[in-house]
Amino acid sequence: MSEYQCKTCGGNLYTDENTSATICPYCGNAVMLKGRLSGTLKPDLVIPFQMTKEQALKGLAEHTGSKWFVAKAYKESNQLDEVKGLYVPFWVYDADLDADVVYNCVDERTWRSGNTEYTERKYYRVRRAGDIAFDHVPADGSSKMPDDLMESIEPFDHDKAMDFTTAYLSGYVADKYDIDQETVRPRVRKRMAEGAADAFASTVHYDEVSVDSSNITAKSSTVNYTLYPVWLLSTDWNGEKFMFAMNGQTGKMVGNLPMDKLRLGSATAGVFGIIAAITLGLFFFMEDFDVGGLGIGLVIAVIAAVLFFTYFQSQLKNVKFQHGAADYYREGSMKLSVKEDVFLYKRTTTRRLNND
Asked: Considering 55, 160, 161, 245, which has the largest number of Cβ atoms within 10 A of its Cβ?
């Protein structure tokens, strides 16, 4: 910790080594910490705050109130612990890439002859290679910020970034980076590789497509050190802290909420029961009803229940690492130089439908 003195009121301030700007707790004035935003520590760009503290608080209330199956006790008794407007340091990459992606693909068709059902699966090795580019792929450079939380509030509109001046920091807290660009580069490369595979996959037309291997090489790349605006909010409930983040530019709010397991479990069981009753009823009145139809009805009910549970659980647990870089694809940059589809083999299976 370092000690500083507020030039306005003379109060003593204590900050950690990575804080670049803060707010005096005694008089409320902005305090810039000299030497922490100069030289290589000076940001290239900054995206100014567009969301106010009041909007952040409203966003948290809406985030909590709009979700089903939040623990009722949490809604009634959680305590707001902290609200802080923070400029978070990000490394932001632009890159022109050579990408080479191999996919495992399957085409499937099913037909019936008499009382036998045939399923044919054809297997292919598919390769796509060429050029592709991504702009403004971010990775936070602060060890204090959970990486999944920062990725969850993306995207930021980097086109609205401004040349950095300390005037933008007035009234907010700002951190300098303590994770260098070399350390975050593997995270960025992984997202670009996933983004390239996803983009090239749009030219692959099979029933099943999965990535076998992906190799990318940067032909050219640039990186900017940019401060992104983030509202951090935390609540305290039942001895546990819950952290939330709002994109200070777009207003996107994320944060995990405690689940009412009993209510969600009961609702899931109810969905299973209703779907099972409907599907089994339909199969029962079919002329060719058999034990197989009974099994299909139960499978449909299980799938419906799993989808119901997964959907509402994801609403409560929406902090996660992002896949790919679709938000940062440079329009029109994909140019394919290799487009190969190689048939490998086929496999046919049969299933007896009934005993008639």
From this structure: 245
